[in-house]
Amino acid sequence: MPDIPTVTLPSGISVPALGLGTWNMGEESRKAGIEIESLKRGLDFGMTLIDTAEMYAEGGAEKITAEAIAGRRDEVFLVSKVYPWNAGRKGVVEACERSLNRLKTDRLDLYLLHWRGQHPLAETLAGFEELRRAGKIAAWGVSNFDLDDMEELMAVPEGKNCAANQVLYNLSRRGVEYDLLPWCQERGIVLMAYSPIEQGRLLRNADLIRIAKAYQATPAQVALAFLLERDGVIAIPKSANPDRVAENAEAADLDLSEDDWKALDAAFPPPEQKRPLDML
Description:
With 280 residues, this protein is an alpha/beta fold. The protein is 38% helix and 14% strand.
């Protein structure tokens, strides 16, 4: 079994640094079986963090997740996200209840604001804190927040309770390394990297293919190993192929040489100045 590294949340809880995404799951009933099997395979390999959202297939991905974790809820660190237009104080509580019903559970381990909307942050945080006091969520965080958004969040009462920020981050999208990632690392806020292989587009890169071949690995494994090397970062690749999920898990055992890390930096240069936050 791969040795999946862990990341420690502000609460002191350790969670896998390599988890399971569910974006695009739950959209077609004929694919439900293989999607559920893929998530179960990931759990078997120790990728026990599952990220979903009410947005994904309008709750369909949460229903797929519920089937995958049936009888195994206590093994799983469960993350979901609220639409920004549902993120008023009352709306966030109601949206969470709907997500819990679809997930067939009584609690979320982490609940995120999917992106910023019209509701003031203070209202959203009041809803999050109400849910936390009620035991409906263990922690809350945000998604698609750049540094200025995070600084604004910190100025809101209870803002320092933020546990995580989920953003687009991979070898071809390294802008967060300039300021956002170090800022989060200094404060113990976990950065969750969505689309860690750029929805498959990274896999055609010649430099990545060359490095992967040297280790008898796949380009996806090298791309995931890059993120696993970063402190305080959780990668959440999505796959509806059980064999591919097993391959992803094996990225945890990949040990690149210093020369190959330098080659990756040459092929995918780190940022030298501030860049707007990438989003998909």
